[in-house]
């Protein structure tokens, strides 16, 4: 697994209680992690093909400025949920472990 994705998973673990105990600081972390994820995932070559098409599609369309994706990911909770889905996928497939 790419080191930047590992770093994202590690940082994500620090905000695991985001939905229950949301704070301004956590919202900033989520937004930063989301942007880091976009940059990292977009820079992957063949490795990105190992991840579900949903991640590939969402990143591609967001970075292309697709209005629906841009609007959806204005919401920090959507950003969190995408990161959560990615983290869960990595844990379930044993690409990442604590």
Shape: globular
* Major sheet details: none
Residue runs with pLDDT of under 50 for 5 or more positions: none
Residues in β-strands, percent: under 5%
The assigned structural class equals mainly alpha
What is the number of beta strands? 0
Rounded to an integer in angstroms, the radius of gyration calculated over CA atoms is: 13 Å
Overall mean pLDDT stands at: 94
Question: What is the ordering of alpha helices and beta strands?
Answer: HHHHH
Number of helices: 5
Query: Please, how many domains?
Result: 1
The amount of helix comes to 55-70%
Distance between the termini: 14 Å
Relevant terms:
98 residues; mainly alpha; 5 helices; 65% helix
Per-chain topology:
Blueprint: H1 3-12, H2 24-43, H3 53-63, H4 67-72, H5 76-92
Helix pairs in contact: 1-2, 2-5
Would you mind describing this structure in some detail?
The protein is an all-alpha fold and 98 residues long. The protein has one domain (3-92). It is built from five helices and no strands. The chain has helices spanning 3-12, 24-43, 53-63, 67-72, 76-92. Helix 1 (3-12) packs antiparallel against helix 2 and helix 2 packs across helix 5. It starts with a helix and ends in a 6-residue tail after the last helix.
